[in-house]
Fold these 2 entries.
Entry 1:
Amino acid sequence: MCLFHFLAVIVTTFAQDEGSFVEKCTKPRLTPAAILDVIMANYSRSLPGNPVGVQVEVTVQDVMELSVLSNSFTADIWFSSIWYDPRLAYSHLDNCRQNLSFDDRFEKLIWSPNVCIVNTKSAHVHRSPKPNVLLMLLPNGTIWLNYRIRVQSPCSMDLARFPIDTQYCQLVFESYSYNTASVSVNWMANPVTVLPEISLADFDLSRYRTSRHTEVYKAGEWYRLTVEFEFTRKYGFYILQLYVPTYISLFISWIAFCIDTKALPARIVLGVNSLMSLTFQFGNIIRSLPPVSYVKAIDLWMCTCVGFIFASLLELAFVAYQDKKLILKSGKSNAAISTLVSYLKHFEPYHDVSSPPPPAPLDEKKSMSRTTSTGTNRSRSELDGLDTKDLEEEIAEYRKLAYARKKWRLLDFGANVDRISFIVFPLTFAAFNVVYWTYYLQDVRISTWT
């Protein structure tokens, strides 16, 4: 572990500086309790210097969760503070003992810079079963204080590129009790260590950066150390669970362009089912996101796909409306022709046929049936009736032919519209895909990571 490696370096350096004493060392001369009694006899919990230099180091053990709903991440870390207090030096008492280790109770007996994480939503020291706190005292008076804690700290969530987004989370360290006049807090040479086995289900911890600046409060100025972690989302889940199903729904809606225009129910079912499945998929994804007011990448994608499916339904409605217009025009034409025929029947030579004279008495009918003139009038009336019947049949035949002609013209028009739509819709969607994926797959971290 990096912390123990650092400690070994400190011990080795001290041993090199005190090499003459180490060579003369045979065995420890005092027990730890005796050394502690001597150095703590006249010890005071006041500042050991002005200002005291404090170095900070962080080792990330694990990252359990990064929540977009709470705008925070939860992690287990080892957090170390190192400073120098010459009043605790014991090399003059025992040059053979390289360090003294204590638990958290000894910390309460000595001065400490009280370096803490000031931006946490929650933090607690692990107990397994006792508090995971290590305080190590080196012979020259250097103190190394280490905590193993679980922290929940805020993140700067920006979901504008979701699900192809990058999120940033921060840990901010300060000496809570001492300002810049008393304590100078700074990072160690190797400030942050991330264990390689860290793995999250939906994010990768891609990189981190550290910074130091002076924070101004009403009580004065404090040194602030910030470590910022960059988390890149793994969007493979969303490709399989969102993008691929939307592609399939969209392609299914385009199958309607290949179905005959007379099969309107089948085409309507395809379009409506695709629209409903797309809405259901979007609802499942959006439930796991906070209600932000700006447009996200997933919003743009889903709205565009819904727009394409809705446009295919509009194309179907347009073709169906043209068919309805033909039926309405045909009905009006039939009514006009029927009115014209009824009107013509009131004129010669159709008046006698269409409006027969009132019936005569029975005796007159018998006498008239024997006359030659009556037979001639009947033959003439039958001829007129045949002429009227032929005219109506010709008009009906003409109406049928005109309707059939318009119907075939409409079917041909609908087929042409479907053929054009079958080409235009995929080409337009392909152009949208090129623009969408080119924009959102580009690496924008350089512009935000300074």
Note: Residues 1-6, 11-23, 350-356, 364-386 have pLDDT under 50 and may be disordered.
Entry 2:
Amino acid sequence: MNDRTIVALATASGLGALTVLRLSGREALRIATERFKSNSGWTPRQSILGKFLDSEGRMLDEGLATFFKGPWSFTGEDVVEFGLHGSPFIAAQAVEALIASGAELAAPGEFTQRAFANGKLDLAQAEAVGDLIAAESRAGHELALKQLKGSVSKRLSELRRELTDFAALIELELDFVEEDVEFANRGQLLALLESAMRQSSEMLATFRQGQAMRDGIPLVIIGPPNAGKSTLLNRLLRESRALVSDIPGTTRDSVEERFRLGDYLFRLIDTAGIREASDAVERMGIERSWVKLREAHLVLLLIDPMNGDPRDAAELLKVVERENPEATVLLVLSKRDLWTGDPTLDFPAHLGLGLNDRDLYKLESALIGLIEANQVQGEVMIANIRHANALRASLEALTRARTSLEAGTSGELVAYDLRDALRHLGSITGEITADDLLSSIFSKFCIGK
């Protein structure tokens, strides 16, 4: 793969102030010199002004070029980046000219894949590059930055090193089985296994929150018909997304949208009203409401106190909490503008919501407060399902090794399970990889990265 010199746009296609093109490979400087003419020499890490020539040798644009000498570049190879004017025509012609001089169009994610292959990034960090580009909120951005800086990789590297040392000692014992020699202290190994299992479990426990921070926190609005659920969805989105009417049962299927609130991205889901329904289509919508509820991290249980009974509300609140014990549920009593007297006295703890901006701001502040109150602390947070599955498989292998050790089983079985745990941990950072895994990961990147 690295015999090819690759080229691609590093900026989004379309009109803009600038277009950045990236060349990487052993022929990068030769190709750049052929297409970019300047009175200045190519000094690494210094931008030079010059004229970019098209495939016919005509001046295409005037711009800047910067040479990065390998291995001191993003990919670890010789890299040249061109900064040209942001015209789609200029960009297309420049790529065509570089290809005419010997470059090949990069595959999706190929620049980052080369950085991984050349030891500039491990696999977890490479995946973080993709997450950083795709981040839609400050929380997702900070999570990707921590992973890019090596927070996950460092913890896993320490864990693998300790396990590798003991696995080597146990396998050494197998070579001296007839002498009945014990190189690995069984008490220390048991303590190490307990520590490794605890660390793996702690990391795995962060996945639910980490995935939500990256992909959007599932926020479900649920409640009886005509409680104002669709109205609330529209207000949170600041647009008319869901149909609103006074007819109960208007929403018959879940409506899902994404919106950013403060530092967080939310997946906001409006659901069909919960009630006993005779209509088959409405029943299907209500069943989907319960499915969405079970996926939620936050639940807004919306009830109109003027048309609801406090005892029914309390019972529905218990049912919601029972259906999803991991979710945080906030009872919201709606239509405060229409209340006469105080119809909320016998309801459980709640938040009142009217159509004014002040009430909406209170609700939004409460949502942010609930997220921050339940936030996992620490540098390491798992957000990638591949990492979570590998940790889960590693934890199972470590558990088997501990069971074998406690039962006094053959060291060969203990060594096998330790190797299995190490293999799964190594797959996260790419110390142990398969070509099909790499292809799957990097194919999700944009072409210029």
Note: The longest helix spans residues 151-175.
